[in-house]
């Protein structure tokens, strides 16, 4: 079994090609019929040709380079290659599962905003091993390796050229995921608040969860930490030095003990003090 670092090294050139494709096609890409989300979440329902094209491209890459590694892509139900992978499920310890969100922030992408990204993760039974998140519109990518920190580079860089990422003074701004808007008023005593459901705009881009890595957010409260996107970005923030727990302040469970490829509710704070303020608001609800 290749190491997580070896997997990232091998996939990075193709991920950069996918990033270039996403950037060049954004203005003209066609939206496909929306997926249907149970809570009518316009982010969960968004789907474009770019999602399926990038997923197919990375699936082909995976089957060529790592045909025996488990692989789960967000659009697994609609691609041609799912049936060729050994499994889309999380396996036993050290039998890695690679996951892909081909366009994280598809609604941002469809509306012409720049803060979409391509996120690939390497999961173990107990926790994340690695995450790489490419931001084509900003010509940069981030990656984290378990226990080694989070790194930032341009799309021209290889992994060795990236620099450790550390944000000393993030904006005093917190993001609330789609169903967490009821916390906004209480949080405004201490923070500027972005509540995704009421605050999303087709005209003006708001930070996404990736704002944890850009310094645009000092914290986040997510209803669930999906392994392919919000959970992955939250884990990257933890690798950078932020505090990450569930809504009660407990350590998040092993991935193998979760359902539907997601952690239960997630809280991220840039410092123990920020994190505690977020937990205090949650405890009052």
Automatic annotation (TrEMBL):
Cofactor: Mg(2+)
Keywords: Magnesium, Metal-binding
Classification via SUPFAM superfamilies: Carbohydrate phosphatase
Gene3D superfamilies xrefs: Fructose-1,6-Bisphosphatase, subunit A, domain 1
InterPro entries: Inositol_monophosphatase-like (IPR000760)
Protein name as it appears in the record: Inositol monophosphatase family protein
Binding-site residues for Mg(2+), renumbered to this chain: 74, 101, 103-104, 229
UniProt-recorded Gene Ontology molecular function terms: metal ion binding
Pfam families: Inositol_P
Domain of life according to the entry: Bacteria
């Amino acid at each position: 079994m290749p190491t997580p670092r070896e997997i990232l090294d091998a996939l990075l050139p193709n991920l950069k090609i996918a990033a270039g494709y996403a950037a060049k096609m954004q203005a003209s890409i066609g939206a496909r019929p929306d997926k249907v989300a149970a809570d009518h979440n316009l982010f969960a329902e968004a789907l474009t040709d770019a999602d399926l094209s990038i997923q197919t491209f990375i699936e082909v890459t995976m089957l060529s380079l790592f045909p025996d590694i488990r692989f789960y892509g967000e659009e697994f139900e609609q691609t041609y290659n799912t049936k060729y992978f050994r499994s889309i499920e999380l396996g036993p310890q050290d039998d890695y599962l690679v996951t892909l969100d081909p366009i994280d922030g598809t609604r941002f992408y469809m509306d012409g905003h720049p803060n979409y990204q391509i996120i690939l993760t390497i999961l173990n039974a107990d926790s994340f091993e690695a995450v790489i998140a490419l931001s084509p519109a900003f010509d940069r990518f981030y990656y984290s390796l378990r226990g080694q920190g989070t790194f930032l580079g341009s799309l021209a860089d290889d992994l060795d050229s990236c620099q450790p990422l550390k944000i000393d003074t993030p904006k005093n701004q917190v993001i609330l995921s789609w169903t967490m808007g009821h916390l906004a008023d209480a949080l405004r005593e201490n923070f500027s608040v972005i509540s995704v459901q009421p605050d999303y705009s087709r005209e003006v881009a708001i930070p996404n969860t990736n704002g944890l890595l850009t310094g645009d957010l000092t914290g986040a409260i997510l209803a669930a930490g999906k392994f392919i996107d919000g959970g992955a970005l939250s884990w990257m923030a933890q690798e950078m030095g932020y505090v990450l727990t569930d809504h009660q302040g407990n350590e998040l469970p092993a991935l193998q003990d979760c359902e539907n490829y997601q952690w239960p509710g997630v809280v991220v704070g840039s410092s123990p003090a920020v994190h505690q303020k977020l937990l205090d608001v949650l405890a009052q609800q």
